[in-house]
Amino acid sequence: MRGRQAQRPWTTASRALALAVLASSTAACASEAPPAVDPAVAVSASAAWAADGSDDYAFTLTSSCGERLLVGSFRVTVTDGTVTDVVGVDETGVRIVGEGHDLAGEIPTLDELQARVLDTDADDVTEATFDPATGYPASVTFDPEPQAIDDEECYVVTDYAPTA
User: Which of 41, 46, 123, 158 has the most C-beta neighbours closer than 10 Å?
Assistant: First the structure.
């Protein structure tokens, strides 16, 4: 047969190697990634946050990642568990607040952020750290669609202080 090369038959060794590669790649796809939040750390943080018990506090939220309105740094005041005041801290935050957007409905309270991390959106958390003293989420990254682009939410919380 001119123009065609003879196909080499699979050897027993090459078949075994191919099956081993297929089996390991299938197992890797089927295995679940470990949770982004260590359950012991989450329980400890939740207990610390519950013990703090403040419904009146202020904090600075830096929000980044994804294509959404809530990007920038903001000083947030929470009264009776509800966001009551938002002030832009950086250039982007000042601009967004100045445009008249109602950010009180967009910015999570620390209780809401804690609930999302530990329960509501726990499967979407790719990274989370907690303040060691009070247990509030100090930094969190949510990624609900790992294969999608720009759906992430990234938060860093600083300067927490009870106000009442």
Answer: 46
3-class state of residue 68 by DSSP: coil
The CA distance from 18 to 21, in Å, is: 5
Q: Would you say the pTM of this structure is higher than 0.85?
A: no
DSSP 8-state class, residue 49: H
- Whether residue 29 lies inside any domain: the answer is no
The CB density around residue 56, as the number of other CB atoms within 10 Å, is 14
SS3 145: coil
Domain count, the chain: 1
Backbone φ/ψ region at 135: left (φ over 0), alpha (ψ -120 to 50), beta:
left
| Dihedral-angle region of residue 64 (phi above 0 means left; psi in -120 to 50 means alpha; beta otherwise) | beta
pLDDT in tens, 53-80: 689 999 999 988 877 678 899 999 999 9
Residue 118 lies in a domain: yes
